[in-house]
Write a structure and sequence with these properties.
Distance between the termini of chain B: 153 Å
Order of helices and strands of chain A: HHHHHHHHHEEH
Strand content of chain B: under 5%
Subcellular location (chain B): Cell projection, Cilium, Flagellum; Cytoplasm, Cytoskeleton, Cilium axoneme
CATH superfamily of one domain in chain B: Leucine-rich Repeat Variant
GO molecular function (chain B): microtubule binding
GO cellular component, one term (chain B): extracellular region
Structural class of chain B: mainly alpha
Oligomer: heterodimer
Distance between the termini of chain A: 223 Å
Keywords (chain B): Cell projection, Cilium, Cilium biogenesis/degradation, Cytoplasm, Cytoskeleton, Flagellum, Microtubule, Repeat
Number of helices of chain A: 10
Strand order of the largest sheet of chain A: 1-2
Number of helices of chain B: 35
Subunit structure (chain B): Interacts with SPAG16 and SPAG17.
Shape of chain B: elongated
Largest sheet of chain B: none
Chain lengths: 377, 508
C-alpha cells in the first residue's frame, strides 16, 4: 500500500514539480519580493513596536519615578523642617545667651570703669598723697643734709684739733731742743730783746720746757725691726746666724776678765728647762709632787721672802734703837729727832741770832734756776 | 786643730751664702740693678738656696725672689719656669712665719701680672698651702696669704672659683674680724675681687656670712678700709635683686650716707657705686633709697666732687629716675637737676657728659610736668650744643639725641622750646615742631607769642618733604593762623609782592 500511494504521490508530485520548475524563477523573484516586503514590513513594525513599548515603559518608569520623587521630597521636607526647627531652637538660645553676655559685660565694664577710676585716683595716682610724699621726701632730705653737714663739720673739727695738737707737740719739742737759747740774767736771749716790753711767746715756752736729755744710742737688738718691716717685706730679717765675732786684732784687755768666748757661750746658751718645768702641773708625777710642795711651803727655813731689789730694804727695814735711849714708855726723841737739849725758860729773847749782812739775793737763787720747772725767776 | 779648720770652712760657706742672699735681696729692692741681676742668672742661683739648711737663708732667698718677680712680667715667668713654685710650697706647713710671709709675697708677686701666671700657681697646688697660711695665728702671714688670694682671684671667674674651692672664703671672713686694720683691708679687697665675677661666687661669699661683718665696718674711720669694704659690698649687690636685698637688710642705710661725705675721694666714689648697684634693680629698692634720704646725699656728693668720681652718683640718679615717675619727681624735688646741668657744662670727659645727658633724659621723659622742670633749668640748649658739637664722641651724641628726644616729646613748655627752634638740626626739629603743633591749636596767647618771636617765620623756612611727619606738623601749625599771615611770613613773599606791583595796571 505504501508503495502505491507512494507512486501516486510520486506522479502528482512530478507534475507539481514540473509546474513548480516553470514558475521557479518567477517564484524566486516573487518569493524574494514578498520576503523583502514582509521583511521591511516586519522591520517597520518591529521598530514601531519597540517605540511604543519604549514609550510605554518610559511612561511607567516616569510615573514610578515621579511617585518616588514626590515621596522623597515629602520625606526630605519633613525631615529638614524638623532639623531646622531643632537648630533654630539652639540658635535662638545661643543668640539669647550672647545678648545676655554682652549686656553683662557692658555692665561689668561700667562697674570696673568706675571702680578703677576711683582706685587709681585714690591710691595710685593720688595727687594729694603724691604731694604729701614729695614734701615728706624733701623734709627728710633737709634733715639728712643737715645731719651729714654736722657730721662733716665734726670730722673736720676733729682733724683740725689733731693738726693743732701735732703742731703744738712739734713746737714744744723744738723748744725743748733749743733750750740753750733761754735768756740768763746777764745775757738776754734771742727771744727776749731788752727793747721789747714783754718777752716773746717763744721765750715763755722755753722757760716752761724741760731740757732734753741726751738720747741713748738706739740699741739694735736682733729682733727689734723684724716686726716693723714685715708687712711690705722691705727689710730682710736680722737673725742671730752665728755667735757675734770679736775682731781678730783685739788685744786682751788688762784685768781679771774671763775668756770672752766662754762668756758669750754662757750668754747665748739656749734655754733648757728642767724636766720639772716642762711637765704640766696636772700630770701624774706632777700631782705626786704636790704634797712635797705643800710641805715646803709649810716648813721654810727663813721667814723672810727673797727680796728682789737692794733698795727694797731701805723702805722695809725698821731701825732697831739702842737700849740706852729707850724709856719706860718707848723711844725718846733725843738722838733721832734732836741732838741738843733746849731750855726755853733760860732764853733771853724769842728770836734767833741775826746775821749781820742781808744775804745776797742772787746767791739765794743759786741752784734753783735750772733744775726746777715752772718757776719764773 | 783640724776639726776647727773643717768647721771653719763650713762656717765660711754659710756666711757666704747668707751674705749672698741678703745682698741679692737688697739689690732686688732697687729697680736699676734688676736688669743686671737678671742677666747674671740670679733666679737659678737663688733656687738651691730655697732648700738651704739655715732658715734665715731660705727666708732671705724667698724674699729676694719675691722682689724680683714683683718687678716685671718676664722675671715672674722666669721664676715660674725655673720650677721654683713646687720647692717654695713643699715644706711650707712646717716653716716659721717669716718664711710663710716671704712665700706668700712671692706667690702674690707672680700672680699679679697675668692670668696665665696665676693659673700656673693654681696648678702647682699652691692654693692649699695658702689656705694653711690663712689659718696661721700671725696677722702678717694671714695678710700675705689673703693678698695672694686676692691677686689670683682678680683675673677671671675660673681662678676665682679655684680660690673658692680651696676653701678660702670662710677663712677670709674670719680675717675680716681680726683687729689689725691692714689685714681687714686686704681681706675685704680679696672678697671684693672674688665676688665681682659672677652671681654664684657672690652667693658663696654671702653664704659665709660676710655681709654682716662688712656692714659693721662701714663706720670705721680708716679711709682705705672703707674703700675696700664699700667696693666689696657693691660687687656683691650688683649681680641680682636678691643679693642687693640681702645687702640692704644688713642695715647699711643710713650709715652709708656718711661715707658720701668722707674727705677721701674714692670712699665717696665707692659709696656712690654701692648705692647705684642697689638702686638699679627694682623700683622698690630705689624707693627705699629715696625714703632714707639717699638721693639728697648723692646729689650733694655730685656737687662736691670733680671728675670720674662723680660718675656713679650721676648714674644713680639716672637709675632712680628711670623706674617710675614718682621717683623721678622725688629726684626733681631733691634739687637733682642743677648739679646734673653743671656736670654737662663743666666736665671734659665724654663719658661723664654722656651719663649726665642720659640721667637728664630719664628724669624728663615721664610726663609734661617732669619735662617742664628739666626745660626750665635751661638744659635743652646745652644738650643741643653737645649733640651738634663735632668733637663729641659718637656715644655722647647718641645719648644726647635720645635724651633730647625723650624730653622734647613730653615738653609743652614753649618758652624753653623757642631757642631750640632757631638752632636745631632737622632730626631734632621734627620733635620741636611736633610739640608746637600739639600746643598751638589750643592756646591763643602762645600763638601770638609764636608769631612775635619769629617762630612762624622760622617754620615757613623749613623745607620738608611733602607727606612726611614734619610736613604734617607744619600744616597743622599753618592751619592755626589766618592765611595772610602765613603768606606774609613765607619766604619770597616780598618778591611776589613786587612782582604784583609790576604787573598791576593802575586804575585811572
Amino acid at each position: 500500500m505504501a508503495a502505491a500511494s507512494c507512486g501516486r504521490e510520486q506522479g502528482a508530485s512530478m507534475a507539481a514539480l514540473a509546474r513548480l520548475q516553470e514558475r521557479l524563477e518567477g517564484l524566486r523573484e516573487e518569493y524574494f519580493l514578498t520576503n523583502r516586503a514582509i521583511d521591511e514590513d516586519r522591520k517597520r513594525k518591529y521598530k514601531a513596536a519597540v517605540k511604543i513599548q519604549r514609550w510605554f515603559r518610559a511612561c511607567r518608569v516616569q510615573v514610578c519615578l515621579r511617585h518616588l520623587t514626590k515621596m522623597v521630597i515629602l520625606i526630605q521636607k519633613w525631615w529638614r523642617g524638623y532639623l531646622r526647627r531643632k537648630h533654630f531652637r539652639e540658635i535662638v538660645e545661643r543668640a539669647y545667651f550672647i545678648k545676655k553676655l554682652k549686656f553683662y559685660n557692658e555692665m561689668a565694664v561700667r562697674i570696673q570703669k568706675t571702680w578703677r577710676g576711683y582706685y587709681v585716683r585714690k591710691y595710685i595716682h593720688n595727687f594729694y598723697a603724691l604731694k604729701k610724699y614729695l614734701k615728706a621726701v624733701s623734709m627728710n632730705n633737709e634733715f639728712v643734709r643737715h645731719e651729714l653737714q654736722e657730721y662733716t663739720e665734726m670730722k673736720e673739727n676733729g682733724e683740725k684739733m689733731k693738726d693743732l695738737e701735732k703742731k703744738d707737740k712739734e713746737k714744744k719739742y723744738q723748744a725743748r731742743k733749743m733750750h740753750y737759747l733761754l735768756s740768763t740774767k746777764q745775757i738776754p736771749g734771742i727771744y727776749n730783746s731788752p727793747l721789747r716790753k714783754s718777752p716773746d711767746p717763744m721765750e715763755l715756752l722755753l722757760r716752761k720746757s724741760k731740757p732734753l736729755t741726751h738720747r741713748k744710742q738706739p740699741v739694735k737688738s736682733p729682733f727689734a725691726d723684724e716686726l716693723y718691716g714685715w708687712p711690705t717685706c722691705k727689710e730682710p730679717p736680722a737673725f742671730v746666724t752665728s755667735l757675734p765675732l770679736l775682731p781678730a786684732d783685739r788685744r786682751k784687755p788688762q784685768g781679771p776678765f774671763r775668756d770672752p768666748a766662754e762668756v758669750l757661750r754662757q750668754r747665748y746658751k739656749p734655754l733648757e728647762p728642767t724636766l720639772r718645768a716642762r711637765e704640766s702641773m696636772y700630770s701624774a708625777p706632777g700631782k705626786a709632787r704636790e704634797p712635797t710642795r705643800r710641805e715646803e711651803w709649810r716648813n721654810p727655813i727663813h721667814d723672810n721672802e727673797f727680796l728682789p731689789f737692794s733698795s727694797y730694804h731701805k723702805n722695809y727695814e725698821k731701825y732697831e734703837p739702842s737700849l740706852f735711849k729707850s724709856d719706860k714708855y718707848g723711844q725718846g726723841a733725843y738722838g733721832t729727832k734732836y741732838f741738843r737739849e733746849v731750855y726755853p725758860k733760860k732764853w733771853i729773847a724769842d728770836k734767833d741770832f741775826e746775821t749781820l749782812f742781808p744775804s745776797i739775793a742772787l746767791f739765794e737763787k743759786f741752784g734753783k734756776t735750772y733744775s726746777s720747772t715752772g718757776q719764773i725767776v | 786643730m783640724s776639726q776647727r779648720q773643717v768647721l771653719q770652712v763650713f762656717e765660711q760657706y754659710q756666711r757666704a751664702r747668707s751674705q749672698f742672699a741678703q745682698a741679692v735681696a737688697d739689690f732686688a729692692a732697687r729697680p736699676q740693678s734688676i736688669d743686671t741681676l737678671r742677666s747674671a742668672g740670679v733666679v737659678c742661683l737663688l733656687r738651691p738656696l730655697l732648700l738651704d739648711v739655715v732658715p734665715s737663708i731660705r727666708q732671705t732667698a724667698a724674699l729676694a725672689l719675691g722682689r724680683l718677680a714683683d718687678y716685671d712680667v718676664e722675671l715672674a715667668e722666669a721664676v715660674v719656669k725655673a720650677g721654683i713654685l713646687p720647692q717654695l710650697i713643699c715644706s711650707l706647713p712646717e716653716e716659721n712665719r717669716y718664711y710663710k710671709k716671704a712665700a706668700a709675697f712671692v706667690l702674690r708677686a707672680i700672680a699679679k701680672h697675668s692670668p696665665q701666671l696665676a693659673q700656673a700657681i693654681v696648678q702647682s697646688g699652691a692654693l692649699g698651702m695658702l689656705v694653711i697660711c690663712l689659718e696661721d695665728f700671725d696677722p702678717g702671714v694671714k695678710e700675705g696669704a689673703s693678698w695672694a688670694f686676692g691677686y689670683i682671684a682678680r683675673h677671671n671667674p675660673e681662678l676665682s672659683q679655684a680660690v673658692v674651692d680651696a676653701g678660702a672664703v670662710p677663712l677670709l671672713v674670719l680675717c675680716i674680724q681680726e683687729p689689725e686694720i691692714a689685714l681687714k683691708r686686704i681681706a675685704a679687697s680679696t672678697l671684693s675681687d672674688i665676688s665681682k665675677h659672677s652671681p654664684e661666687l657672690a652667693q658663696t661669699v654671702v653664704a659665709a656670712g660676710a655681709i654682716a661683718y662688712l656692714a659693721q665696718m662701714i663706720p670705721n674711720p680708716d679711709a682705705k678700709l672703707k674703700r675696700q669694704v664699700l667696693s666689696a659690698l657693691s660687687q656683691i649687690a650688683k649681680h641680682s635683686v636678691d643679693l642687693a636685698e640681702l645687702v640692704v637688710e644688713a642695715e647699711i642705710f643710713p650709715v652709708v650716707l656718711t661715707c658720701l661725705k668722707d674727705s677721701d675721694e674714692y670712699v665717696k666714689k665707692n659709696g656712690a657705686t654701692l648705692i647705684r648697684e642697689i638702686a638699679k634693680h627694682t623700683p622698690e629698692l630705689s624707693q627705699l633709697i629715696v625714703n632714707s634720704g639717699g638721693v639728697a646725699a648723692v646729689i650733694d656728693c655730685i656737687g662736691s666732687c670733680r671728675g670720674t668720681v662723680r660718675l656713679p652718683g650721676i648714674m644713680t640718679l639716672g637709675y632712680v629716675a628711670a623706674h617710675s615717675e614718682n621717683l623721678s619727681m622725688a629726684v626733681i624735688v631733691s634739687k637733682g637737676i642743677p648739679p646734673l646741668c653743671v656736670c654737662l657744662i663743666e666736665e671734659h670727659e665724654d663719658h661723664i657728659k654722656a651719663a649726665a645727658a642720659w640721667a637728664l633724659g630719664q628724669i624728663g621723659r615721664h610726663t609734661a610736668e617732669h619735662a617742664r622742670h628739666v626745660a626750665v633749668a635751661n638744659v635743652l640748649p646745652t644738650l643741643l650744643d653737645i649733640f651738634v658739637d663735632t668733637c663729641s664722641s659718637e656715644d655722647l651724641k647718641v645719648k644726647a639725641k635720645k635724651a633730647l628726644k625723650n624730653i622734647l616729646q613730653k615738653c609743652t613748655y614753649l618758652p624753653a622750646l623757642e631757642p631750640l627752634l632757631h638752632e636745631a638740626p632737622p632730626s631734632i626739629m621734627k620733635y620741636i615742631i611736633g610739640q608746637y603743633s600739639k600746643v598751638l591749636p589750643h592756646d591763643s596767647k602762645a600763638r601770638r607769642l609764636f608769631v612775635t618771636t619769629g617762630g612762624l617765620k622760622k617754620v615757613q623756612e623749613i623745607q620738608a618733604e611733602p607727606g612726611s611727619l614734619l610736613q604734617e606738623y607744619i600744616n597743622t601749625i599753618n592751619n592755626c593762623y589766618p592765611e595772610e599771615i602765613v603768606r606774609y611770613y613765607s619766604p619770597g613773599y616780598s618778591e611776589m609782592l613786587l612782582e604784583r606791583v609790576e604787573n598791576y595796571q593802575p586804575v585811572l
